[in-house]
Amino acid sequence: MEKELKFEKKRKYRLVTPCCGKSNRDGKFVNYQGFPEQFGYCHSCGKASLPFSGQLTNPGYLNKIKNSRSTRIQQQFVPEKIIWNYYRNKPENNLIRYLKRTYEHGRVQETLEKYAIGTCKAGGTVFWMINKNHQVQKCKVAFYDQNGKRTNRFKVPYKNEEGYYACLFGAHLLINYNKGRYTVVLVESEKTALVGDILLPQFTWLAYGGLNGLTNDKIESLKGHKILLVPDMSNQAVLVAMKQVNRMKDQGIKIKLWDMRYGKTDEELKKEGIYNHDLEDYFRKLENITNIYSN
């Protein structure tokens, strides 16, 4: 006897409908009870998304599909022309103006073009996540004050539930023939990666945007490269970073961690005014970074 199909009482507004490929914000797609979220009925187009008849009573199939990565929406890409529209937007955002006031103008302009940094109409800085195949996967919009300090305001226009998943910021700069020849520096914030590229362009600067966000896909892109991970200056950030270093070493990635606390506690860092620092003040002194892999 086949399993009876019944509708879920609660709608899943954050999924993308398998039939129309659109956001379910209007709640017109209703899921079937006991099935993965790609199975249901769409009141918008009138189509039912169903498993095959014989699969309705097959627990093994249901468990497999629930746990399968195939349930994840296929990666969508942002048309490349869009990023250059934001790149040309005027007036320039606060972060760009700060960088041009603080660092050599020509180097800043090269870095802005290299990472395709844009400006949205509201004045936010648009950071594009472009993969090593130069496909635009996602973006983040952050807002900065006139002194280049990030505010608590940000936007993520392209959502995971719509099929837009992040890659490492700067991943498009990873070149296969450079594997193992040049150091790739992983830092937390996109701004830090930009300043690093401005001051020390001999390295490839990438941002992970939060160590807990280092997914398997992001780690996969680092394989074969020589990685230096530089976490923010706090005990918690370094502890999390150490776990990620061990995880990546287990996957065969050559990686080292630079703990810039140099043994200082959080209390000592706070007294010095550098607790959880974004590292920009230290980038000017990072010439000795070249010695880390020479040991």
Characterization of the model:
By secondary structure, the protein is α/β, with parallel strands linked by helices. It has three domains: 1-72, no CATH class; 75-167, no CATH class; 175-295, Dna Topoisomerase Vi A Subunit, Chain: A, domain 2. Helix content is 26%, strand content 17%. The protein contains nine helices and eleven strands. It has helices at 59-67, 80-87, 94-102, 105-114, 190-199, 216-220, 235-250, 266-271, 280-283, and strands spanning 29-31, 40-42, 48-49, 118-119, 125-130, 136-144, 150-155, 183-187, 204-207, 226-230, 254-257. The strands form three sheets. It has a four-stranded antiparallel beta sheet with strand order 4-5-6-7. A four-stranded parallel beta sheet has the order 9-8-10-11. Helix 3 (94-102) runs antiparallel to helix 4 and helix 4 crosses helix 5. The radius of gyration is 23 Å and the shape is globular. It starts with 28 loop residues before the first strand and ends in a 12-residue tail after the last helix. Residues 287-295 have low confidence and may be disordered.
Give a quick rundown of the structure.
The protein is globular and about 60 Å long. The chain is of the alpha/beta class.
